[in-house]
Specification:
Strand order of the largest sheet: 3-11-1-2-8-6-7-5-4
Number of strands: 11
Number of helices: 2
Distance between the termini: 16 Å
Mean pLDDT: 95
Low-confidence stretches: none
Strand content: 25-35%
Length: about 170
């Protein structure tokens, strides 16, 4: 089965989100997301950063119940080199979160709530939402508070990601 036939189903606090992948422009990021999902890495994590009108960010292992690290700082123990491409960052695009170093992505990801052209060719876009736009809206509208970084982006209630499963596109 090729990556392009596979999709990710995120079972979240507000319902299901289905994401398709772009292995033609970001093969390493797609492969990594699928691998981590199949290993259960994303299960019981949360969207730890919600910036209204911009994006929701998740995938940090420090967001699991009982984890000790600061949310937003976790990784899978390795980094992936950037795969910048010409896919625009528009609503529903799945992209790799990273630190200042363009080659510092690992497991964290974000989904755009609105068009964000300033991210184009700066972050690795590797998929897009194909089902669950209403769920994305609900998550993006969750109440937030000031976080440790001085940004009002920390959800006041847990924005749970119960599980991420990889299925064939024709099974959804």
């Amino acid at each position: 089965m090729s990556d392009s036939e596979e999709v990710a189903v995120l079972d979240t606090l507000h319902g299901k989100i289905v994401l398709e992948f772009w292995p033609d422009v970001a093969p390493k990021h797609v492969e990594n997301f699928i691998k981590l999902s199949k290993e259960g890495f994303y299960n019981e994590t949360a969207f730890h950063r919600i910036v209204k009108g911009f994006m929701i960010q998740g995938g940090c292992p420090h967001t699991k119940e009982g984890a000790t690290g600061m949310p937003g700082t976790g990784d899978p123990g390795y980094k992936i080199d950037a795969e910048f491409n010409n896919k625009p960052h528009v609503r529903g695009v799945l992209s790799a979160a990273r630190a200042a170093d363009p080659n510092s992505a690992g497991c964290q990801f974000f989904i755009c709530l609105e068009d964000a052209p300033f991210l184009n060719n700066q972050y690795t876009a590797f998929g897009k939402l194909i089902q669950g736009d209403e769920v994305l809206t609900l998550l993006g509208n969750m109440e937030t508070k000031m976080g440790s970084g001085g940004e009002k982006s920390t959800p006041t209630t847990r924005a749970s990601v119960n599980s991420v499963t990889i299925v064939t596109k024709d099974s959804i």
